[in-house]
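(Structure overview)
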Amino acid sequence: MMPLSVPLPEIVIPSADALASLSRFYKTVVRLPESFRGGCSFGTDTTVLPLFFLNDRHCACSFQVKCHLTELNFLCHIQSMINQFFFGYGSLVNTSSHTFGDISNARLIGWRRVWQRTNLRNYSFLSVHKTGESSIDGVIANVPNGNWKKLDERETGYERIIGSEMVDHMSPKADSISFYRIPNYNLANVEKCPILLSYLDVVLMGFLQRFGKQGFSNFFETTDCWDCGIFDDRENPRYPRAQEYENSFYAAVDNALIDHQIDMCR
């Protein structure tokens, strides 16, 4: 069998909901790379479908596992990376919104944030898109035992990308780093798909705490598509991880929205 060789930055791993959907279409065993354990075998007649999305083109490669898994060089390589981390650039920057550890500041190179309209819900997701020489601040944190289930469920609607070579960081522990984005098949052109203010508050508090006032300000400058507008749900939050903050912080957010001429609706 020829070794499977895939550049790490180009690999996209579907989240749990996408994996379940794909399983209905393929009469085979569907597994994510972290499902493979070195030193085990699926026998001689097992069809395995590892899922990768390469260069923004959706593809699935299926092959017969006819011998020991050490032949699957790439999959074993991924599993051998004991310390798997995520890069967060939105609400995950606010460490009060999750319980992951080994957190440190980091930067994603070659991407910008974007408020993304989708066909999944009536409010915009915060995603990222490639933009050449741009970069964005965020955090990396450890995913214990490489178990992504909890985070994949939180990030329902997103796809997970292994992008270690695109993340600038100082952590000596991060062997592999992944981040999430909205996949092309979930994109939609809809007129009204505002940003939840309760979500934006959580995001901006995270940037204020991790990067100070400059980080708060930079978030607006390094995020695109603010023309979605803001839906003011601060009094009755629709974001499940909404938090209460001091009025001075709310005033700073509101003033920043006015300064950037971002529309508010109720």
User: Anything to note?
Assistant: Confidence is low (pLDDT under 50) at residues 1-11, 21-72.
